[in-house]
């Protein structure tokens, strides 16, 4: 009886240990998804945002990208943004872009995360940008995106972002 009791207690401890590891140590997919949550959080702008908060968000946006990140945002006759940009340039564009809005929200949906090779994550998703411009015009844009993230120093960073035409997919 004593041995059975020890086996049950030992098995319970091992089971609890496995559950703790599974829930507390995030998988690589969860780490990738977290980067999108952070980007959404940093892009968001509430009416009356103070200067310190804005500067902190812009700085944090830059930290989510690799030293050289490629953007392919084409197809809109009024807006095209393609090329390779440094973190500092990405932060600068984010600052200018956010300045046109009094309120802004970026949400990501239907993330499909793949790992085509070690240290690389490919994510297909839907992004929705909503807000109000400083001219009080409502903005509601939805785009399909393909993002590539690279694992650098144990963290996932955006290295490529491309708008995908739905018919091309």
Task: Provide the residue-averaged pLDDT.
Answer: 86
Uncertain residue segments: none
SS strand fraction: 35-45%
The CATH class name reads Alpha Beta
The largest beta-sheet arranges its strands as 2-1-6-5-4-3
Question: Kindly, what is the distance between the CA atoms of the first and last residues, rounded to a whole number of angstroms?
Answer: 63 Å
What is the total domain count? 1
As for the CATH topology, it is Nuclear Transport Factor 2, Chain: A
Structural class: alpha+beta
Give the overall shape: elongated
Number of helices, counting only DSSP H or I runs of 4 residues or more: 4
CATH architecture: Roll
C-alpha Rg (nearest Å): 21 Å
Tell me the series of helices and strands, N- to C-terminal: HHHEEHEEEE
Please bin the fraction of helical residues. Answer: 25-40%
Number of strands: 6
Main sheet attributes: strand count, strand direction, barrel closure: 6 strands, mixed
Structure description:
By secondary structure, the chain is of the alpha+beta class. It has one domain: Nuclear Transport Factor 2, Chain: A, CATH 3.10.450.50. Helix content is about 40%, strand content about 45%. The protein has 4 helices and 6 strands, in the order αααββαββββ. It has a 6-stranded mixed beta sheet with strand order 2-1-6-5-4-3, with helices on one face. Helix 2 runs antiparallel to helix 3 and helix 3 packs antiparallel against helix 4. The longest helix is centred in the N-terminal third of the chain and has 23 residues. The model has no long low-confidence stretch (mean pLDDT about 85).
């Amino acid at each position: 009886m004593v041995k059975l009791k020890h086996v049950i207690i030992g098995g319970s401890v091992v089971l609890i240990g496995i559950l703790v590891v599974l829930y507390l140590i995030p998988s690589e997919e969860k780490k990738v998804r977290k980067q999108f949550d952070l980007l959404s959080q940093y892009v968001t702008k509430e009416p009356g945002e103070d200067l310190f908060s804005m500067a902190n968000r812009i700085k944090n946006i830059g930290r989510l990208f690799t030293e050289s990140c490629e953007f392919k945002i084409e197809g809109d006759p009024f807006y095209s943004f393609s090329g390779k940009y440094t973190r500092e340039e990405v932060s600068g564009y984010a600052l200018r872009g956010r300045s046109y809005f009094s309120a802004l929200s970026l949400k990501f949906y239907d993330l499909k995360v793949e790992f085509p090779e070690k240290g690389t994550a490919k994510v297909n998703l839907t992004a929705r940008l909503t807000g109000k411009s400083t001219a009080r015009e409502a903005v509601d844009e939805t785009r399909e995106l393909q993002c590539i993230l690279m694992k650098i120093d144990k963290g996932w960073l955006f290295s490529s972002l491309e708008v995908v035409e739905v018919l091309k997919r």
